[in-house]
């Protein structure tokens, strides 16, 4: 068990170091030597867990959706608003979330697959569930609207990063929802939805604790529960 715990801790140290380097330098300029220095591990330890820089980048992008918690009950529309605030909080406080976002925006499409699909699927699922619950207008196309919301969020966070280093991102996300909600839901529903988020995003589960409990070589358990979380 001690060996397993050390392996999990080593993997986590490598991922976190790689995230900070990708966040600082982007994919092309990120050097494995700098990742090794920040992780304080040997080259052999790095290659045991990740055979290449590409696999490290993929691991970071794969973890993006684990930075949000989707409530299993309650308003699905409010849940959708809340996960955007959770991710906004992560972008301000979590290098891994920032690194995954930077890699995505830079067009690091490993294996030819773009990194937005899981986000599209998660948002589309919540919109469909909200529509089934009578919260979203029947004419709303879940898939098209999901892509629009993810794209709009991406643009908003880029502007926030450029102007204030994302210190005002959650306020900008609230404004985003103030403008989107009237187009997708009923007036009677809007008054029950909180565009600024209904829950404290800082209360999201600590992934480091989860990783410490996982078996050797296991990936962190996703916080989403959808069959195709985005």
UniProtKB/TrEMBL annotation:
The keyword Metal-binding does not apply. Residues 206-219 have a biased composition (Acidic residues). Keywords: DNA-binding, Transcription, Transcription regulation. Residues 197-230 are annotated as: Disordered. The keyword Transmembrane does not apply. Residues 8-68 form the HTH tetR-type domain. Residues 31-50 bind DNA. Pfam families: TetR_C_45 (PF21935), TetR_N (PF00440). Residues 220-230 have a biased composition (Low complexity). This is ScbR family autoregulator-binding transcription factor. It comes from Streptomyces flavalbus.
